[in-house]
Amino acid sequence: MKAALVYTSTTPELIELVEKEVRSRIGGEAEIISLQDPSILADVRKAGYVTPQAAAKLMHMYAQAVLQGADAILNICSSVGEAADAFQSAAAYTGIPVVRIDEEMCREAVRIGRRIGVLATLPTTLSPTKGTINRVAREMGTHVELTDGLVDAFNLDQAQFRSLLIGAAGRISDSVDVIVLAQGSMAYVEADIEKATGKIVLSSPRFGAQALADALKRKGLLP
């Protein structure tokens, strides 16, 4: 069994966390293929949207995963989540599912409450995450109110980043039922934000890893 992890951000902390969550759910015997192209996120940040070139690079990585024998693919980057959605017809045809890291997180947020705060450090991540929350809310037959928590974390170290996110969460906590961390790289601050705000806080790696495991189960590759 092979699982492919597709990254557009390659911070060691994010890679370590995602692989730990994936391993805990699919087992140590499974082969993990790690495909990385940070130029995709750089292109998206520069343009402010997913350009045709960025989408093509992403889909090339999906194709590489299929060629390397992956049984399922986990898309790590929320900024390109809509591009991952666009690949679903090809994924269905090949029988190699492409799972988004953030979709089940967004669905869980809608289950928890109608007032959802979304923390992000990039507009290009904030917008598609909000779009996904609104889409799954429609699918679940409900309406949600979204509150933005966009912060500038450029050139900050981990301690400064943690402090910035806790402060941003505190500013919106009174008006939300649940806080969503739009980027997987924020996950290590989840417990701190929860403690500081008293709100339920959701980060994507554990949800994405479980969604990947569920996709493999549907193929009969996991019990």
The gist of it:
With 223 residues, the chain is an alpha/beta fold. The chain has 2 domains: 2-101 and 206-218, Rossmann fold (3-Layer(aba) Sandwich); 103-204, Rossmann fold.
Summary keywords:
223 residues, alpha/beta, Rossmann fold, 4-stranded parallel sheet, globular
List the helices and strands and how they pair.
Blueprint: E1 2-7, H1 12-26, E2 31-36, H2 38-47, H3 52-67, E3 72-75, H4 81-86, H5 88-94, E4 98-100, H6 103-112, E5 115-120, H7 123-139, E6 145-150, H8 158-172, E7 178-181, H9 190-197, E8 200-202, H10 204-218
Parallel strand pairs: 1-2, 1-3, 3-4, 5-6, 5-7, 7-8
Helix pairs in contact: 1-10, 2-3, 6-7, 8-9
Provide a descriptive summary of the structure in words.
The protein has helices spanning 12-26, 38-47, 52-67, 81-86, 88-94, 103-112, 123-139, 158-172, 190-197, 204-218, and strands spanning 2-7, 31-36, 72-75, 98-100, 115-120, 145-150, 178-181, 200-202. It is of the alpha/beta class and 223 residues long. It has 2 domains: 2-101 and 206-218, Rossmann fold, CATH 3.40.50; 103-204, Rossmann fold. The strands form 2 sheets. It has a 4-stranded parallel β-sheet with strand order 2-1-3-4, sandwiched between helices. A 4-stranded parallel β-sheet has the order 6-5-7-8, with helices on both faces. The model has no long low-confidence stretch (mean pLDDT 95).
